[in-house]
Amino acid sequence: MMSSFLWRLWQRHKKNSRDNAEPASDGAASSSEQFEGRDRRHLLQALSVLATGSALTGISHPAEARDSSDLPPPRRALTGRDEAGKSVLTSFDVTPKVVEIDANPGLTFYELYMTEGVPELTGREPDPMLKGTKAFPGPGGTMFRLISYPPKRPEGWKPPPGVTFESGLREMSEKIPAMGDHFDRAAPGMHTSDTIDYGVVVRGEMTLELDDGQKVHLRQGDCIVQNGTRHRWRNPLPEPCLMAFISVGGKRA
Asked: pLDDT tens per residue, the chain (253 residues)?
């Protein structure tokens, strides 16, 4: 794309130079060198403008912080089986269980599905999210959720009036039973669960922090496997990050 543009630009300048050239004379050789030098100057000038314009484009329109509410909510296609045993689409919409954490504006849980024990695959199971949700599944259970993390907070940002760390954890536990109990009071954001968590960055970027000080920068499409490990998430960008998680309940050894 860029190479074809530069080629057209070069050809255009060569044509203009030829059209503007005087008829050949005894000084034809020197005239030719003169116009070739002009062509080179034109091309260098064009390249300079192009490079400067690209650089300015990158710095003159910085990304602005956005709330997750600016983005369309993800939809969930739920399938089942009819009385004849054939697969059917039972719904295709936003999950009935969407949890917004007011203490941390922009933090949104899309609770998609959960099971306990060995699922009975009748194809006519009711949507488990109609009954509510929970923090993490028990041994052998599963939890499928999307989490939209708010953008990196600007310098000087403060939580909503009256919100404290403890009140935020209480709200989380009220809306997602027992979720706040998994967070470390001594290290805000650090949390642990008795699960194996399979995570994927669906949109945006995320930084994973671990006990040993490691910080893993995850980009869109990157995956993570948490083996019941203590960790924390931080969004490094001024835009929301959407992550998908499948948690499988286990037993801590």
From this structure: 444 444 454 455 444 544 444 444 444 344 444 444 555 555 444 444 343 333 333 333 334 445 545 678 999 999 999 999 999 999 999 999 999 999 999 999 999 999 999 999 999 999 999 999 999 999 999 999 999 999 999 999 999 999 999 999 999 999 999 999 999 999 999 999 999 999 999 999 999 999 999 999 999 999 999 999 999 999 999 999 999 999 999 999 8
- Of 168, 78, 155, 60, the closest CA to residue 123 belongs to 78
pTM of the model: 0.73
Give the whole-angstrom CA distance, residue 190 versus residue 176: 17
In order of 48, 49, 51, 85, 189, the CA distances from 16 in angstroms are 20, 19, 23, 73, 64
**For residue 245, what are the β-bridge partners?**
145, 199
Kindly write down the DSSP assignment for every residue of 222-247, as one continuous string.
-EEEEES--EEEE--SSS-EEEEEEE
Residue 160 sits at the vertex; the CA angle it makes with 156 and 166, to the nearest 5 degrees, is 105
CA distance 171 to 131: 19
Asked if 224 and 218 touch (Cβ cutoff 8 Å), the reply is yes
